[in-house]
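Action item from last meeting closed. Structure (296 res):
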């Protein structure tokens, strides 16, 4: 029996790593083709420096689809109406990193905004609406509700609405379930955890109360395609989204988002995402990577 050497495998466009039996190599040309497909589908901006990322993230898709190499995969994904695989590719190439009360200053800002708008009944339809545009597994959306839900007691309670969207339907399903490992509870203020969460120490998990979960509508959404949004928002969480986009896509998505934000509403970005010349967008800075809409 002849056992192939690493050199033999490389000639067949396959390399070996320490963890998996087969991880595929990719040419510069195919990298750019993949980049073009995923950008057209999701806006994700990838260049040649991301070759290792493409190999590590998409090798599982190639194995699952029994593709011998990236040439085969590109032929498969380029088939007419192969939207499902384009979605799978975009999911594989994005990172879902989140936590309860991550960048806590934004939730303090949200609470202050909510106090002002609810006390003055500013919202045009009587509801205070929040949009988490990259909700991932739900921690951000639940943190938002935790931060303001006590302001909606009695007659106002029903008027808190949160839309939580993500391109990845698998993390959204986890978010809907509202169940997390117990180790994550330490990011939630103790008083809120005790009031709104139930822990099962035998399985090392806790669940979020239905009173909180009922305030949130989780929906799959691609930010460069059609948006299922009819009402304007009072607050938008747009955190760690623009790091994936090029300048043109950022501009287009930002302006679309702001068209769905009330005057006086606020939009929050990730710690590395600053808006230069916010006045060009009718915004003014109101905190750390936080901006208030002051004009259309």
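Sequence:
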């Amino acid at each position: 029996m002849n056992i192939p050497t690493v050199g033999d495998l490389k000639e067949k466009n396959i390399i070996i790593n320490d963890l998996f039996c087969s991880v595929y190599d990719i040419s510069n040309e195919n990298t750019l083709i993949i980049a073009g497909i995923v950008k057209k589908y999701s806006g994700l901006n990838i260049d040649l420096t991301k070759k290792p990322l493409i190999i590590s993230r998409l090798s599982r898709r190639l194995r699952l689809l029994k593709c011998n190499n990236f040439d085969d995969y590109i032929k498969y994904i380029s088939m007419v109406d192969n939207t499902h695989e384009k979605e799978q590719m975009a999911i594989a190439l994005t990172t879902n990193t989140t936590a309860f009360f991550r960048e806590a200053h934004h939730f303090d800002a949200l609470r202050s905004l909510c106090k002002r708008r609810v006390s003055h009944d500013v919202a045009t339809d009587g509801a205070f609406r929040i949009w988490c545009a990259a909700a991932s597994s739900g921690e951000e959306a639940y943190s938002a509700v935790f931060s303001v839900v006590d302001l909606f007691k009695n007659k106002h309670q029903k008027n808190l609405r949160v839309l939580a969207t993500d391109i990845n339907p698998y993390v959204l399903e986890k978010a809907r379930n509202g169940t997390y490992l117990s180790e994550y509870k330490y990011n939630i203020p103790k008083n809120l955890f005790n009031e709104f969460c139930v822990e099962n120490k035998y399985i090392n998990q806790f669940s979020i109360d239905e009173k909180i979960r009922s305030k949130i509508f989780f929906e799959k959404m691609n930010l460069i395609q059609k948006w299922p949004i009819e009402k304007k928002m009072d607050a938008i969480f747009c955190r760690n989204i623009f790091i994936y986009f090029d300048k043109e896509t950022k501009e287009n998505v930002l302006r679309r988002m702001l068209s769905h934000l009330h005057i006086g509403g606020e939009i929050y970005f990730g710690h590395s995402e600053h808006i230069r010349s916010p006045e060009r967008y009718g915004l003014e800075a109101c905190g750390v990577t936080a901006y208030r809409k002051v004009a259309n």
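Note appended to the action item: Residues 28-42 form the longest helix (15 residues).
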